[in-house]
């Protein structure tokens, strides 16, 4: 009974919000409501900034026509004397999540402007979501509740997976999948009829499976989304702070804390055992950290009990680790690791709460000492524990902007010591920097391809690129690979440091050589401390 009581008094889903406004609408009234969203899409499609994006414009027009056709069909049914219910219900979990995710999107977009370029596309998805939700609700049960519900869905899609312009129409399909799952995939839980799946994570998982099966990741921004979310400074701290209001109001901190500490703990153990970093440039990739803070923690589709939520978080962290390895071993992109498992975890919540209620685990329930506390006071205690853990992980240097796995000196030493996957990770880092324009990295790629991977043809192309970028060693090595002879290494130039010092962050604006060498000295590049003196 103690566990059940805890579920009722602060660790469960938010209580249903009574409608602030409710009325009955005729067929004409319902049509006008839906038509307003259609009109919004039509107006949006006429924006001049879409002139250069014809597929996006056509996709928005197509979405508007689908909603209009559905509205006309529904109007034909309702005009036979039926009415529908129209409610306005502003649920705190929806508008708070919208504000928190919106703040993160704005911060991220400031450092990767493709997000701001997608602003009209985000608005289009919101209009479509409202129109689709109204028509689906009235078609299925004759009641539509207007609120902020679509915002967390659309903002979650923006934070994790969106389609490039030539395939943008799939974005509307993804929105429809999420809303349909919320409407039709339901169960009885604690005496309430509620949706089973997180309406944000279900479409992300479903579309991720589709993309993996058909090897179609390139039609999305998925990889760049996961990469560029690390661009803003102090991004881990920003996400931690953004998550606090939801943790205070809805008690979701135990889930996030369990997921974060599980993943960080595994990464730390892996590093201690192998001398290499599991996730290469982070103990917890930034997109995974966002998922642990703002995606899988939906209070309506997660466990009610404290122990259940801790188990739920541990499972999310553990499955993220496992999926990352599984995906890479299957030659698939690893960034799907935080998306695929959430629907399965949603299905497990009843079982997890039953396990939490078992006598053995009930005796170990950490909240037992605070049964008499008010829910928000317990939430503050959970937040305090998570805050202490976050401070410790950040202070270690392995959760934040300065993770050493971003830069080549660590991997050069690890490769020389033959640490697990270190040479491959070093090669991949150099290959990325070479593609961006670092001549030194192009030369290093060529040497590794020639000496370690025995691929002289591709090595010659890398040397040629280094030479074309003005790196003398690259020119010498391009000749050596044809005529025979030893390959030559050289130190990076100031021009190279503009690329290689960025690590996994965004482009560096600094051009002054003395400052670039000073930064390189801080990060351990050999010889750079002398260069600045």
Class based on secondary structure composition and strand pairing: mainly alpha
Which percent range fits the helix content?
55-70%
Mean pLDDT comes to 93
The low-confidence runs, each spanning 5 or more residues with pLDDT under 50, are 1-10
Question: What's the end-to-end separation, in Å?
Answer: 70 Å
Q: Biggest β-sheet: count, sense, barrel?
A: 3 strands, mixed
Instruction: Determine the strand fraction and express it as a percent band.
Output: under 5%
| Helix count from the secondary structure assignment | 26
Description:
46% of the residues are buried. The chain is mostly helical and 533 residues long. The strands form two sheets. Strands 1-2-3 form a three-stranded mixed sheet. The protein has two domains: 2-395, no CATH class; 407-531, no CATH class. The protein starts with a helix and ends with a helix. The chain has 26 helices and five strands. The model is unreliable at 1-10 (pLDDT under 50). The chain is 65% helix and 4% strand. It has helices at 2-11, 27-45, 54-78, 92-111, 114-117, 119-141, 150-160, 169-184, 201-213, 222-228, 235-250, 253-274, 286-295, 306-329, 342-347, 349-357, 359-363, 375-395, 408-416, 422-436, 439-451, 456-468, 472-483, 494-500, 513-522, 528-531; strands at residues 21-25, 84-88, 143-146, 186-189, 192-195.
């Amino acid at each position: 009974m103690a566990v059940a009581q805890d579920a009722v008094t602060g660790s469960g889903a938010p209580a249903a919000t009574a409608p602030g406004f409710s009325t009955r609408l005729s067929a004409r009234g319902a049509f006008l409501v839906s038509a307003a969203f259609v009109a919004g899409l039509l107006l949006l499609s006429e924006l001049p900034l879409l002139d250069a994006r014809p597929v996006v414009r056509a996709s928005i027009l197509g979405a508007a026509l689908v909603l209009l056709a559905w509205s006309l069909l529904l109007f034909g049914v309702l005009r036979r004397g039926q009415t529908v219910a129209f409610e306005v219900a502003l649920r705190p979990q929806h508008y708070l999540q919208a504000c928190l995710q919106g703040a993160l999107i704005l911060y991220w977009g400031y450092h990767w402007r493709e997000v701001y370029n997608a602003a009209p596309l985000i608005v289009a998805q919101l209009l479509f979501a409202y129109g689709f939700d109204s028509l689906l609700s009235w078609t299925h049960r004759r009641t539509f509740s207007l609120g902020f519900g679509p915002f967390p869905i659309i903002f979650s899609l923006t934070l994790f997976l969106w389609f490039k312009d030539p395939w943008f129409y799939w974005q509307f399909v993804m929105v429809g999948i999420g809303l349909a799952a919320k409407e039709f995939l339901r169960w009885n839980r604690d005496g309430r009829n509620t949706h089973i799946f997180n309406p944000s994570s279900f479409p992300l998982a479903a579309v991720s499976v589709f993309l993996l099966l058909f090897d179609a990741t390139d039609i999305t921004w998925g990889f760049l989304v996961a990469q560029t979310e690390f661009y803003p400074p102090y991004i881990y701290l920003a996400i931690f702070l953004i998550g606090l209001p939801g943790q205070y109001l809805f008690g979701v901190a135990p889930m996030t804390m369990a997921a974060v500490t599980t993943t960080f703990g595994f990464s730390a153990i892996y590093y201690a055992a192998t001398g290499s970093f599991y996730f290469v440039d982070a103990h917890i990739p930034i997109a995974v950290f966002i998922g642990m803070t703002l995606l899988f923690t939906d209070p309506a589709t997660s466990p009610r009990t404290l122990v259940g939520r801790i188990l739920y978080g541990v499972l999310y962290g553990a499955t993220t680790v496992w999926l990352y390895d599984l995906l890479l071993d299957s030659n698939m992109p690893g960034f799907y690791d935080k998306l695929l498992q959430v629907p399965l975890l949603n299905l497990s919540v009843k079982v997890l709460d039953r396990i939490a209620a078992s006598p053995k685990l009930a005796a170990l329930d950490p909240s037992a000492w605070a049964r008499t506390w008010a829910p928000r006071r317990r939430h503050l205690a959970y937040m305090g524990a998570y805050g202490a853990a976050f401070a410790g992980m950040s202070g270690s240097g392995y959760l934040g902007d300065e993770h050493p796995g971003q830069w080549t000196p660590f991997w050069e030493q690890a490769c020389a010591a033959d640490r697990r996957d270190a040479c491959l990770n070093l090669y991949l880092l150099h290959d990325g920097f070479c593609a961006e324009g670092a001549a030194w990295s192009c030369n290093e790629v060529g040497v590794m391809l020639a000496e370690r991977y025995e691929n002289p043809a591709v090595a010659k192309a890398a040397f040629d690129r280094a030479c074309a970028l003005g790196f003398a060693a690259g020119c010498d090595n391009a000749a050596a690979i044809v005529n025979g002879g030893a390959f030559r290494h050289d130190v990076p130039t100031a021009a190279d440091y503009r690329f290689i010092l960025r690590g996994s962050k965004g482009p560096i604006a600094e051009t002054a050589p003395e400052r670039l060498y000073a930064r390189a000295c801080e990060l351990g590049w050999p010889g750079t401390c002398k260069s600045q003196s």
